[in-house]
């Protein structure tokens, strides 16, 4: 009988597996040392720890090949028995297609990738002798690289893409190329079909008037929908790193419209997107000529002693500085209450964003801001990198490889509608707050020549945090409560930085947690908090009423443009539309 020349599959020897493991280990260590070059020295690895990790990798790799070959390799009809996987691996949406586990080829690729990912992550965590921030930076870089190298991101190793390509005769790749070229032209990854939305028509469409305008902001007064409104009006300060209409999306999601319908006199600041003329703006400008100017303008217009305020994200941080300045000036009574949406003042636990504030990153910020402002698209990339798997690679697969149509999603449209940031303010904010954490040091920051101290703030505060917030982590937002001296109600909302805030009651989604008595620390809050299903918005409205429930009739200056300040233009104004 003639001997076949076809090579039979055979199991690698233990020596071969050990050799490959050593090669991978040495290569990975070199890569990690290069990635952490900013430390200025070679990263120290504990030899015993590395040996244990490499030994585990060799054992698991050997077991994977053994299972694969024992079950017939690529000729088998069923996938190889999988090792016990973590809940995170089982829920990994990248491998949701059944082919990833049912097809022997893709099953081997998937398990091999997860094995190598676990090995590289553990090796990154094994670095000793560096500070926690450098170690976090190393882990972040490793995770980002692993996300990018996932087999789901490549057409030939993603079974869903292969099947789609066969079904469409490759038309999905043509359409995906069109999407990619369009994104390259505009310099930004698309998340939704922007043609489906128009600011002022189906988003940012709550009726109102622009009643005040400065080079920094426009003040919108929204038209009441009730016969009476609260005597104390509300001013909303959205972050200027995004467009304001995150709080005024489609009518059913709009916090602005909901608050108006709840009988609140609502004003909102629409910040101007930065251009070269704003290159010298600093934080003082946003405090003095932004928030305090708006507060005084509304007080004068309606002839009221004080206003309620809301500050979202960076505008919440700024609101804390504004309150501290007013307290230092003896003018704290201008603000009746302060609500903070996912805002931070103590940046010691500010999460992965702190990885972007070292000297090298600051040099990059300077280069990108040479025109006097930072293009908002760069900030969008930074935020996307914090959740690269969901906000970058998910869309690379869907938009470019599968050629899928963009879904019409108002929140994603807002997310891509970027704003520019004044160069000087942006750098000061990153260095003084994120890097040096000066805001919580009494007197370390001065505004208009006045040293400020957050401990002087006695204004009643409502502090909202998101349980899954990756931009303003729960632990960081909680710290705000430790720096205020007045009564504080802390509310933990389900979901994250956006969905945790924009959760209208009618949607009946998520939940929130509260404690009726103040808690000494976050652990105590979590242990004793009561869970309530649905939106926290009604809880906030009840809290406002608990401070002052007096109402006045809607007439005169309570109607936009009918008081001493005439309407300049219809809401949402032109600042929000400027690019």
- Number of H- or I-type helical stretches: 19
Q: Taking Cα atoms only, what radius of gyration do you get, to the nearest Å?
A: 27 Å
Biggest sheet record: 11 strands, mixed
Which structural category fits the helices and strands? alpha/beta
Give the overall average pLDDT: 86
Helix percentage range: 40-55%
Instruction: Using the alpha-carbon principal axes, give the shape.
Output: globular
Please tally the β strands and state the result.
17
Q: Spatial order of the strands in the main sheet?
A: 15-14-13-12-7-6-4-5-2-1-17
**Poorly predicted tracts of residues:** 1-14, 38-42
Distance between the termini: 78 Å
Strand content: 5-15%
Quick overview of this protein structure:
This protein has 579 residues and is an alpha/beta fold. It has 19 helices and 17 strands. It is globular.
Describe this protein's structure.
- The protein is globular, with a radius of gyration of 27 Å.
- The longest helix is centred in the N-terminal third of the chain and has 24 residues, at 47-70.
- The strands form four sheets. An eleven-stranded mixed sheet has the order 15-14-13-12-7-6-4-5-2-1-17, with helices on both faces.
- β1 (208-213) and β2 form a beta hairpin.
- By secondary structure, the protein is an alpha/beta fold.
- 42% of the residues lie in helices and 12% in strands.
- The model is unreliable at 1-14 and 38-42 (pLDDT under 50).
Keywords:
579 residues; alpha/beta; 19 helices; 17 strands
